[in-house]
Design brief:
metal-binding (chains A, B, C, D), six-stranded parallel β-sheet, homotetramer, alpha/beta, three-stranded parallel β-sheet, 15 helices, TIM Barrel
């Protein structure tokens, strides 16, 4: 029997208030889609099956190098975090798994597993951390980790990743995500080629230790925390890594890790074509790695990414089974609300992409009818699929309006009374 | 008698080693410049008079939201910081003033003044901080400070700025720099116009309290810590502020606070033309507000900025007396070395700009001879002015090679033995 | 009696096919909006009143410096262009005016006026052209026009603008739009300040000749055709111009003329606040001044711009009556179809912005409820307002589906048979 | 006996004027380098051996989509262009080869070869053109060429490339450069994967026809002329192409074809490491593909690229023998002067890179001494190597000051009297 952090009564009451409107909206949308030969329930079922992992670090208030402003009831440790994650899943039914970050979430694996089971949560990809120094660590990562000039430092970083795999095995995870901060702040600081050779050698050791049914995700990023060069700076380098390592190695795409103006959906298509798309860290960005809520700034871009994913699914593209994960920094919102909303936005983009009339699109593309091709995408995108998303939640026990229901539940006030307040403060690292 | 943190003997010894080469290089360059009608000593004198302020926060190791990796002998407080700043000035003779950040540098003003006097250091512009919460602060700046929707929060932020002015008066400072993090992370979070009206009203109160012989510098920045919109996002808004407030209000230009591809030297020219250039926060950047060492990534851009400054000087542009300050984050170097080197780079750009043959340039510009106009700039820029910079230091008691002399002095090891080691660690605010 | 380029029968037939679905969709949307207290007909009426000007040059196939690939039936001259423009208006009822470009559209003013009257088209802002040399022109604009170092060249450029005003007066236009290509390709080529002084002096002469009931729109652009610096490079410089000239001078915002990542809606808000928003050149862009179809790449950005406009309207912001114009380059579509579609997208953003619950938004903004504030915008944006747009067209005599109706009409084939084919070819100016 | 377009007397006279200064500067620099253990003559010899190809299209005045402003004496055809190219080589001794563009330079191959021989010029990589339609062409490239949906259009584009190879064989060329404009202007217009599959299939056909001793260079570009997506958009896709095709296929790097803020020198390093760097199209850019003169805007970036090249040379990196070509658009200068100056700038970056103390750099890199590592690069970069460049020219029969000598020669006036003037004019393709 799954432990419920939000009372079922609250959900029922809140749903009751909205049931009639939801039924009407769903019926109206169903009628309209039916006119175009689309069965709304088929879409709803697919949406209900679509899941995205929540990052454990996402339920705490994020910050910048300038400051962090905690909210009420900040989670104290991974067990609090799992409680918070379970709330998101309970209301959205979209986030059945949590992605852990080691050492931030380090705890007894058995206890973790038991907690997850109790809450009805599974464990997604494990994330290693060699971009900051853990207390007592023998070798500092100030000048790099997996690509460090010093062999002992690299060995320590490799070892940490192996430990992450071990923890993950105990928890039922099936993937390791490796993102590092290695790079340089000055021209000449690092020798690009020797640095990347060291990186590849370290990764090869990690890859060797990967269980057969696991996947290794490497994540590229243009800059930050390194500000002149970054070892895994773009998808080109990321592809070289995955290609060098072997068939269990895949590229992870974080939507905020690209150069300005980059056509991200095209990168997604290329990685699918060459069998190396591992999955996503969903979020949104306007300037850099802003880690804003998914779909909050450029919702059409999110749709265009999902357009590629649905297309690949339909084509049965080889080796295509991407992992979906959120990676955001919630600086000014209740993190639980942002994650509820983001899971919803991701499903929205998926639902819209499912509505694209792909036969018509094929014809327009093959006849160079650019206007009608793009209009075909736009028609799907313009559809207000909220009734479908709500229905998918409703039918699986979630909330028609999960944010309103969350607010009605008083969860935040409850945990705020249990968890000590944290003072804000300067990052001090301007 | 000024307190010397580096023994004069060390400087003398190190200079002695390099004296012959310096003399030869200076003579050779002097000959070459003379051939073009330029008197090297005139340039050297001007360079020796050129000063740039050091930021107190710059002598500590900086970091990112991901981590900070402290070095040995991190300064514990403003008095340690002033010691470090004095080393930079002793070796470069280019940084006679320090810019303080309140509350980070809060201390008894009399003690501060005495310490500065003892070290031969003055106090440059004061910097207020309403982008993070100080312990015990009544109202949080999570959702803004000078532009906050709540009047009490705005009043608190105004009050803090008034306090900065008071401290500055006691120290002999003549300017207040206001940079805020106010903005928003989501479309719709803030009403752009009402937010800016509140900002202007708060600034008007600060402006009213400004002593007659002070200047108010407002600093714009495109993004970070806010990631969808920033209240003072660019020079256009910054100009509106300065223009609205009055004649003591000026715009501060930080070289890393602009949109990608921005022509910064042109912004400098526009602000000069309209009498509103207050000064600079020097640094360099490749991606965003990277706060890299001045001139380390795009040295020609730094030169082009100084080309505008020297031109304005020559034209006696009205109201032109810009403040020069460094604002950098030293994440992977000894901050003292980076600041020595940066002060040097800034003087280098100034020296190169002084060498531009401006009569020739005028003629080329007026005859649309684009190639020779740009070549005129390049000829000045290509000149290796290091002998001039070294001579300017040497003649004023500094070091021919200040970084090597600093290393020879053993200063870092000495303070490392006096100041407790600090563990690195995760920013925890990813 | 207005001359109709598309037979009314075709429109009626095409509308008939779609009438039932349109009625159903409009009713369903009306029901849903009514539930939120919104009267759909009020929105429809406002949408029907919203007009946007079509650029005469937009009905010809555009190109790049690499090539241009003309389509069938390219307009030969302004009279053909007006025919094409009338088709757009006939089907959309959204584009009652045309914006002319001189000398491209030079013709006898009386004939032009008569042609416009016959087609039911008025004349919007006049556009001068001093970014290319007209045959037989005495002074070349190779090195600038209104800011040229040579007084005679500047005078010629001023004179051309005065002529544009004269033509416009005869046609009933009420505004002059000045966009120039002046700038430089090399650091040092131009003296920023002297160049801008010359520009301002030239503009002052044009401004002096402006009729009392006219407005002067100056348009900024970051780069292209100049690639190192541009005289009117951003809204900051544009504001300085408008502010220097006087109360009839306003800033024009082209959505594609900004630095990467720029928050354009915020610039719009600032210009409104300071009484200097003149209007828009609508289009979309992903990389630079791509001149793509409005709303085709970042539709949410277009909505956010309109969110500011509707907000200003509601606040009765002083001096707020922006001009709406399209400025696009149709390289791969039938230009008439792109303009039909773009007019529709612009009205779509307007309709969505009208649906924003502004009282709720105010409350969320004032309580720092970032999540619900942004959700309030999103709810309006997510509404599929196509039934409203179609209804607005239908009620004013336009087409429910204007592109399909245009295709059904055979207009393109008809003009292709009357207008000679043009060969494509290399721009030859790589 | 090579035909000389500039009289040897003029060169001798101009050199004579500058001989003493050059000797003095060369000696002084030699002394200084000797102090650091560097033999200046070794550097000079290497510089003298360094060559870069001139693009035939570069000697005509370039333009933008807005306008082109021809200069006096524009070359009428490839034979005029070769004359102009020979002037550049005669004065710089740095540009012994010319890169042709077909069909722009189409002519009888035997005549071409003879002309080249007479002028002492060889033929570098051949450039095909399927980004514009040639008169009489059966299938238009409006919607693509090598990746077009239509097989006949693709076949025509392949055929054109085969013809380029044939012409190149006759001329002694050893490489084909393929840059295409294929892409899309609207989301959905093209299916990314099918489009790229078609591209790869077309390239495979071209590759098959490549002579054994030839190389195939594919060139990526982020955008323009396509403004939503480009088939070969970045080095990641470019690498996939080269890797798929085979060992004669290489990636060409144009310095202006990248996203904003991209670290280009790192891409160069990656391509070298994976054996796929084919060569360069040198130029400079501030905003997009500005095609500005090499080193004119970011000279340090050019140096950093050459730093990688010299490092690879020293390491004997496998398969490393990059082609050096200029690709610029000379809109406001005499193209001959810009090409002279650019060849000089490219050699300058090479000379500076040769001066890097690589043993010291290795040590600094291996000890994480970021400050001294970057200073090691800067010291080399700061060296004013103009005396070396001038000496390299002088010793091989060129001019100490090639631009001044060119101006003294009266060449431009001479050809202006022989070649008819061309009127400027609007691109007409805004």
């Amino acid at each position: 029997m799954t432990e419920q952090k939000i009372s079922g009564d609250v959900i029922a009451q809140e749903n009751e208030k909205r049931a009639a409107a939801q039924a009407a909206d769903y019926a109206a949308l169903g009628d309209r889609l039916a006119r175009n030969g689309v069965d709304i329930d088929t879409i709803t079922t697919k949406v209900a099956e679509f899941a995205v992992a929540v990052p454990s670090w996402g339920v705490g208030t994020g910050g910048t190098r300038f400051a962090r402003f905690p909210g009420a009831g900040e989670p104290r440790h991974i067990f609090d975090k799992l409680d918070d994650c379970s709330v998101i899943h309970q209301l959205t039914r979209a986030t059945p798994t949590v992605s852990l970050h080691i050492p931030w979430d380090k705890a007894d694996a058995k206890e973790l597993k038991a907690k997850g089971d109790a809450l009805g949560l599974g464990f997604d990809a494990m994330n290693s951390n060699t971009f900051s120094d853990a207390p007592g660590q023998a070798h500092s990562y100030k000048f790099g980790s997996l690509s460090h000039v010093d062999a002992a430092t690299r060995a320590q970083a490799v070892e940490h990743n192996l430990e992450c795999i071990e923890i993950g095995r105990a928890l039922g995870s099936k993937a390791l995500t490796v993102w590092i901060g290695d790079g340089s702040n000055f021209p000449g600081q690092s020798h690009f080629t020797r640095q990347f050779e060291r990186y590849l050698a370290s990764l090869a050791e990690i890859y060797k230790a990967l269980p057969d049914d696991w996947r290794l995700f490497t994540e590229h990023k243009m800059y930050e925390p390194a500000f002149y060069s970054t070892v895994v700076q773009d998808w080109g380098t990321n592809y070289l890594i995955a290609n060098t390592l072997g068939e269990k190695a895949y590229c992870l795409v974080d939507l905020g890790h690209h150069a300005p103006n980059t056509n991200i959906e095209m990168i997604v298509a290329r990685l699918i074509q060459f069998g190396k798309l591992g999955g996503f860290h969903f979020n949104d960005s306007k300037y850099g790695d802003d880690d804003l809520d998914a779909g909050s700034v450029e919702p059409y871009r999110l749709f265009l990414v999902f357009n590629e994913l649905v297309d690949a699914e339909r084509r049965n593209a080889g080796g295509f089974h991407p992992a979906h994960m959120i990676d955001q920094s919630h600086n000014v919102t209740d993190p639980i609300e942002s994650l509820i909303s983001s899971a919803n936005e991701i499903r929205r983009a998926y639902a819209q992409a499912l509505l694209v009339d792909r036969s018509a699109l094929d014809l327009y593309q093959d006849s160079n009818d650019a206007l009608m091709a793009t209009e075909t995408l736009k028609r799907a995108y313009r559809t207000d699929v909220e009734p479908i998303l709500a229905e998918a939640r409703l039918r699986t026990g979630g909330a028609i309006d999960p944010v309103a229901t969350y607010r009605a539940s008083g969860y935040r006030a409850r945990v705020a009374s249990e968890r000590p307040a944290i003072a804000g403060g300067s990052g001090g690292i301007v």
